[in-house]
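[User] Once you have settled down, look closely at the record that follows, and write a paragraph about the fold.
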Amino acid sequence: MSLWLTQKSDVYSLGVVLLEVLCGRSPIETKVDKHKQFLVTWFRNCYHDGNVDQTVDPALKGTIDPKRLKKFLEIALSCLNDQGKQRPMMSDVVEGLEYALNLQQRYKKNKGEIGLTKIEDHHGDFNDKFGKVLSMSASSSTSMATTTCSEEEQALVHGMFPELRNQRPR
């Protein structure tokens, strides 16, 4: 551990923030069971045990398709790799988040009736980028519409995260 702030440490921090949003709690909770005190450790353990459902904020359940929620959780998990070199680049995380958001919006638009079609993004295969970090679910690779972010969707993402408009290093 170098204790230097790097682009990869920023990716880790974003992973923690994503977990905070998806799990509806802060990174450290002192008034819970000892095994749940540290959000990242608790989430990793639940994910690897197949119990990730118990980590999700109850307020999110029912508002987002479980398969799409899993994508967001997998992106967060990929950001939290202990080895900085194994974490995705921030641009890949942004692309992955846009991809997952697009899937969710398509799901909501079609009321969950996307059908069994192959979903591809125009920047390359999302699963290839994050597959090195963790084993992605096969749902997106078995599911056939070409997805692109509309200007409205891009505006939504950039409105929520204005820092993403300027992708120059800081």
